[in-house]
Structure to design on (696 residues):
């Protein structure tokens, strides 16, 4: 994968065009998601076309303070299940990642370990031409942490080796006028966006991938199985929180505080 | 490498574990030249543990070292009598008989070994071939090869190699520095006659190398993988500088009577002398990568700001090179880790097999872009030699850095790499 200096926007546009077309996509692409199941939300209908996919899960999908439920009596049970479900979902989506990485941060705490997260991304994104992650839209604190980490890692790589992967993002969910909107982006000017209307077989793969995440069925039912949305990632100003975050004020404070630290470290 | 028969592997046998420690002490004394003291220890071991092979065997080695072949033979025989079902113990007797010029007797001893499995059968067949190989190519006939290269043809030192590399960089010339060790030597092709002379030995060594590289030997029966040998031989023939085993290394392999080391190292040297010595390829030690590290070459290379690419299993290496030594990394490929060192290297997350999937993907990527002036640091084992050959064909500059990449990433895959300061990426 070429890492020599170039305009990062055109590879992103190229990849977006490929998404809206058909056939295999050989661009070396990393999909960075917060939780097991986010990969299915992101692109379970399209992922089969990526022949050089690096799959990165930031968290293990289990919160620090685990409370036993009817379904999972221990945290280990939950972890095992989420790993197995993800394996099954990737298989159902016909995803064949050439590389799979689990960073194993605790669910809900990615922002607290974001320096390590960025360091690891700098290492692993060196091998990629493009990276797709969550939009910075306030859907979940870990999603926003992913967006922050990927943007900063790419900036660092740009500074370090003169080139970084093209940044794209997929539509997750966010709040607007008191409602949760799923599978669409918060409108943003200047961000090229594609909506991939899935074929019947791709839609079926997406349904099967969703079905594989049995422990998350309550969340996944809000997502559209007929289409997937991608766009060129904007250059975010993380000193501002997303308009209406779905996470609480304490978590918003953690994000704001960490962004301040990262900004001063980055500019020093 | 010392092997003492299967009983020595069972530490639960009362008294044997302590005896092994005593035996190790005896070996240390023997290797230090204290033969009398060592002999006393081994004699005591034979007296106290006559049913265990290790005392007999080490005494045999000692007597051979003293030059008393007949006496050594008695003790190697004693070792086999103590543990008749242990093939490796028997191998010592076989190889001693070969040393004495008694090939037929050696093969007879092998034929007496019970065949308990397919693995044992393969090992016996390989040993038969190896006995014949040593008979055809004894030390006195093998060592002149590296001596001829070192004395008459000339070995390039680190400064000479560096000059050639920088000349290629400055003039954007195609170039490859290839290093061959026993692994590649095992897979070399010296022609159909040689292949039919020692078929079982070569198959045994090749399968063993596959297990080290890929975790199993399934690729042995893969026609595509076997065909790579043509590419390997081309990469060797067309390289600019070839790192080969030196006389001390070959001597050590002969001393150890290494089933893989002797034929693999000698075959590299034979091939070079017989086919390439009058051509443009210059030789250097196959440890040239370490010499280049010691000489500070890599510091100068990184400082030169030549565009660099890496092919390695170390995910962190390209980033580390950019961060720590400001190397101008412009391309990077990740390959699966060598399975023989999986515990040390850790998993880098690559789920595909190196061959054919990752290998073909990288080659097609390399072919798709101009390699002129691009310097590649390749640490990819056997397949790495093929990457180097392909990069050179495409006009690039390929340096086979081998285990240096492990050292730069502080992964101790070989004992010398324990010296972290010596193998640091950023040298002070």
């Amino acid at each position: 994968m070429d890492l020599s200096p170039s305009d990062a926007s055109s590879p992103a546009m190229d990849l977006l065009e490929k998404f809206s077309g058909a056939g295999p996509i050989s661009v070396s692409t990393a999909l960075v998601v917060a939780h097991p199941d986010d990969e299915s939300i992101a692109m379970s209908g399209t992922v089969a076309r990526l022949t050089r996919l690096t799959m990165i899960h930031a968290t293990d999908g289990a919160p620090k303070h685990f409370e036993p439920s009817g379904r999972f009596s221990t945290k280990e049970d939950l972890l095992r299940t989420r790993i197995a479900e993800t394996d099954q979902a990737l298989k159902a989506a016909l995803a064949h990642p050439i590389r799979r990485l689990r960073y194993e941060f605790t669910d809900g705490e990615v922002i607290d370990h974001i320096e390590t997260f960025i360091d690891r991304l700098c290492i692993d994104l060196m091998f990629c031409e493009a990276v797709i992650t969550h939009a910075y839209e306030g859907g979940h604190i870990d999603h926003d942490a992913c967006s922050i980490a990927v943007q900063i890692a790419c900036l660092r790589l740009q500074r370090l080796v003169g080139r970084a992967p093209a940044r794209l993002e997929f539509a997750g969910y966010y709040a607007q006028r008191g409602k949760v909107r799923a599978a669409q982006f918060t409108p943003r000017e200047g961000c090229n966006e594609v909506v991939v209307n899935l074929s019947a077989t791709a839609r079926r793969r997406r349904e099967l991938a969703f079905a594989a995440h049995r422990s998350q069925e309550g969340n996944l039912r809000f997502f559209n199985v007929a289409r997937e949305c991608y766009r060129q990632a904007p250059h975010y100003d993380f000193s501002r929180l997303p308009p209406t975050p779905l996470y609480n004020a304490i978590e918003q404070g953690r994000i704001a505080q960490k962004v301040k630290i990262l900004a001063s470290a980055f500019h020093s | 490498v010392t092997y003492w028969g299967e009983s020595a592997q069972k530490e639960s046998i009362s008294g044997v574990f302590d005896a092994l420690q005593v035996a190790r002490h005896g070996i240390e004394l023997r290797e230090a030249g204290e033969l009398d003291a060592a002999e006393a220890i081994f004699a005591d071991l034979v007296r106290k543990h006559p049913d265990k092979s290790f005392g007999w065997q080490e005494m045999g080695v000692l007597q051979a070292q003293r030059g008393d072949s007949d006496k050594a033979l008695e003790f190697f025989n004693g070792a086999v009598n103590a543990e008749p079902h242990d093939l490796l113990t028997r191998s010592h007797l076989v190889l001693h008989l070969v040393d004495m010029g008694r090939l037929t007797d050696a093969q007879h001893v092998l034929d007496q070994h019970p065949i308990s499995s397919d693995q044992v059968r393969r090992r016996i067949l390989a040993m038969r071939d190896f006995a014949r190989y040593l008979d055809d190519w004894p030390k006195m006939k093998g060592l002149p090869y590296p001596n001829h290269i070192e004395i008459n043809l000339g070995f390039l030192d680190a400064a000479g190699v560096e000059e050639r590399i920088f000349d290629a960089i400055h003039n954007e010339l195609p170039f490859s520095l290839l290093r061959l060790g026993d692994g590649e030597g095992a897979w070399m092709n010296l022609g159909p006659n040689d292949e039919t002379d020692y078929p079982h030995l070569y198959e045994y060594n090749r399968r063993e190398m596959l297990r080290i590289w890929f975790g199993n030997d399934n690729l042995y029966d893969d026609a595509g993988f076997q065909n790579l040998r043509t590419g390997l031989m081309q990469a060797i023939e067309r390289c600019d500088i070839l790192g080969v085993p030196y006389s001390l290394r070959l001597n050590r392999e002969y001393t150890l009577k290494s089933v893989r080391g002797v034929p693999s190292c000698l075959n590299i040297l034979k091939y070079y002398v017989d086919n390439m010595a009058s051509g443009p390829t210059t030789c250097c030690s196959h440890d040239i990568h370490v010499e280049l590290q010691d000489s500070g070459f890599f510091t100068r290379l990184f400082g030169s700001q030549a565009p660099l690419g890496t092919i390695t299993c170390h995910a962190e290496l390209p980033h580390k090179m950019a961060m720590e030594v400001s190397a101008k990394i412009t391309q990077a490929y990740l390959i699966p880790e060598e399975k023989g060192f999986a515990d040390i290297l850790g998993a880098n997350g690559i789920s595909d097999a190196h061959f054919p999937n990752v290998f073909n993907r990288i080659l097609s990527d390399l072919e798709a872009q101009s390699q002129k002036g691009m310097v590649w640091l390749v640490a990819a084992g056997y397949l790495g030699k093929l990457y180097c050959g392909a990069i050179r064909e495409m006009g690039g500059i390929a340096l086979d850095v081998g285990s240096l990449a492990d050292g730069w990433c502080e992964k101790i895959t070989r004992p010398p790499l324990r010296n972290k300061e010596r193998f640091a990426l950023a040298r002070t």
Summary: Chain B touches chain A through 24 residues (CB under 8 Å). Chain B is about 60% helix and 10% strand. The two ends of chain B are 35 Å apart (CA to CA). Chain B has a mean pLDDT of 92.
